[in-house]
Amino acid sequence: MRLRLEHVHERRISGPNYCVAGAKVNDTAVQKPVVSAHGTAFIIILAVSFGHMINDIMQSLLSALYPLLKDNYQLDFWQIGLLTFAFQVTASLLQPIVGYATDKRPMPHSLPYGMCSSLIGLILLAYAGNYWLLLVGAMLIGIGSAVFHPESSRVARLASGGRFGLAQSLFQVGGNFGQSMGPLLAAFIVVPFGQHSVAWFAAGALVGITVLWQVSNWYARYRADTTRKPLGGVSVMLPRRRVAIALTVLTLLVFTKNIYIASIASYYTFYVIHKFGVDVQQSQIMLFAFLGASAVGTLLGGMFGDRFGPKAVIWFSILGVLPFTLAMPYANYEWTIVLSILIGLILSSAFSAIVVFAQELVPGRVGLIAGIFFGFAFGMGGIAAAVLGVVADHQGIDYVFRICSYLPLLGLLTILLPNIGVLRRKA
After folding, report:
1. Strands 235-237 and 29-31
2. Looking at the domain assignment, is residue 20 inside a domain?
3. Does some domain include residue 95?
4. Cα–Cα dist 231/168, whole Å
């Protein structure tokens, strides 16, 4: 398959209400879009989204395997948490470094190489003879994730034609869809056929490597095109102190979102098995419903972010989910399914908006921002999974879900974010 470069038509907007990137306007500089939305290269965005799906299927198989691994290796909850910690913190530590390095020197062909690392980790998970090899497999998947995310996020932005929210959400929804497929694949393939069947997914990884190699070739041609003007973004240059405050708030919002997501991804199956007496297969299907709703919410969040602005989406997502998270620990079986779907739909809509917001605040650092926020997402999820595992061992799984239900209250910090739309209109 050969992916063709679609031409991105570029234009500059001039007039009394606009300014050149970097010009001072009341201590605020505004950079306006310089590309037309008509140049959006959807085939490239969909290709990296497909690669994201394959990448996250391999990742989600790890957490979907937890009930099997717990029985096969006689693991405690803290050991389950350590597996998540090994995977996510490896990715967390490396992603900002990879993002910073590729901002200075882009590495187009790092995309398929990263997936090769995840493929090796997947094979180790299938045939690990002891718990320590499981940890090594989890770390290799984390390394693959660290290499993949910053550069693929940059490719999605380059192919966006100025529709940054839509491009980021389409890229992200591939990952969400991959995460949601993991529990289904575990329920209908891994659970019936055993741990070794994880190796069957190597075929999908090879397809992903092939697709990403073609995307890398497009990326290399894009960079080599000397007639192409630099891709402009919708960036607002604020005083350094305001940028630092805004990035801190965005980081805390990611912290809130991903600790709650970690509680669901790592322990939701154990929670519904314990509380409602369902079997492993039913619990995996319930987890799929949550993760599938998260994929839909991510796509909608990007679309609404382009239309109404990222701050509005963040308000709705982080704080709007609070009534549903508070209700879920006390719900019956049917309402638990409904509430988990609503929570996944609403809570996931914020992530692409948060990434786009941060990229506007720090222009020219697409890889670093993607590395920090994707990496922070993984890191906080890993730390949370380990801590929550210890809490679950001592206080019970019900207690974990009760305390996590209050996390969206931190969404009130959104009030500290700058109103980028107002700043643009004043420029």
Report:
1. antiparallel
2. no
3. yes
4. 15
